[in-house]
Amino acid sequence: MKKFFSVTLAIVMLLSTLTMFGCGKATGLDAIKKAGKLTMYTEAGFAPYEFVYNNEIVGVDIEIMKAVADRIGVELEVQDTNFDAIIGGVQTGKVNAGAAGITITAERLESVDFSTPYTQTEQYVILPAGNTTIKFAEDLAGKNVGVQNGTTSDLLVEEMISNGKMAGATLTPYNTPAMAAAAIGKIDAVVTDKLTAEIIINNNEGLQAFPLVNSDGTPVAEIEKYGICIAKGNEDLLAIINEVLDELIAAGKIAQWEQEYSAKATEVGA
Ligand code: GLN
User: Fold this and answer.
1) Is 130 left (phi over 0), alpha (psi -120 to 50) or beta?
2) CA of 152 relative to ligand 1 center, distance in Å
3) Which of these, 96, 157, 180, 248, could form a disulfide with 190 (CB 3.0-4.6 Å)?
4) In total, how many domains does the chain have?
5) What is the pLDDT of residue 112?
6) Are residues 188 and 134 part of one domain?
7) Is the CB of 146 under 6 A from ligand 1?
């Protein structure tokens, strides 16, 4: 009996060790409370959702995650990284969450879980102000198009090049949409999310932006919805994020922050 007990105990201990260390770092709610901080990845070149203001990363996503950290009762730690490193970093438990104006897509849902959507966007094209020849997606055929690396804009332009809609176009990836826009002149156009495109043209007199549509007037892609991502299987953390988001949305806070931070971004030319 004693032997049976100790074997059982050994198995239980082995199993709990495997659960703790076997699947990467612990990212659940208990681990966050124990650490006293909620860690998140963002990419701070995406105003109004995240950008640098007075040497600090601020924006809509940061406000949302601060509210989540407050609800858990811990500090928020924001870590800046490249956009295309966010999903993988969250998936492998390098941080607890990713908030970066991230569109919820079927492909990304294979790697991470997403919160309920908190805002939506569509694809915009940025062009030199005087350009009158590029009106539709098809007009970008043969042109050099800039995008932010690893974004839905990147994937969309790549797809339109390979399916012939933008036949012969060249795709150039940049670290941020603003860096891509700064290269206009050297490149012909930039494709990015709506609000970010609007802020970029507010900050740059020589540019214009409008929705990217097909020549038959249909949108080039479905409306995109932004969500917060976390590692799969953290139901308790996801429930808190969703609860906080539901309250913020109902109180009109997301729309209010989108306006406030768009103004702040324009103020500092972010
Ligand atoms: N919404 C886009 C995406 O998820 C772009 C996000 C971003 O550039 N930060 O791919």
Assistant:
1) alpha
2) 6
3) 180
4) 2
5) 98
6) yes
7) no
**pLDDT for res 6:** 54
Quick one: DSSP state of residue 136? S
Rounded CA-CA distance 75/265 in Å is 25
Q: Atom of ligand 1 at shortest distance to CA of 83?
A: 9
Does 143 lie in the same domain as 37? no
CATH at residue 161: 3.40.190.10
CA of 60 to the centre of ligand 1 (A): 14
pLDDT at site 26: 57
Percent helix, strand, coil in the chain (nearest 5)?
45, 25, 35
Strands 170-174 and 144-148 turn out to be parallel
Domain shared by 7 and 85, yes or no: yes
pTM, full prediction:
0.88
Under-50 pLDDT residues of the chain: 1-2, 5, 9, 11-24
Cβ proximity of 229 and 110 under 8 Å: no
Structure tokens, 6: 């100790």
Verify that 75 and 106 share a domain, yes or no: yes
Helix axes 253-268, 194-203, angle to 10 degrees: 30
pLDDT of residue 269: 82
Pull the structure tokens for residue 49: 């959702």
Q: Are 250 and 209 contained in the same domain? A: no
pLDDT of residue 14: 46
Q: Which residue do the tokens 């109902």 mark?
A: 250
pLDDT at 15: 47
Say yes or no: 47 and 59 in one domain.
Answer: yes
> Order of strands, edge to edge, in the sheet holding 97-98?
75-80, 37-42, 97-98, 229-230, 113-114
**227 near 104, Cβ under 8 Å?**
yes
Domain with 202 in it: 123-222
Question: Rounded to an integer, what distance in angstroms lies between the CA atom of residue 268 and that of residue 270?
Answer: 5
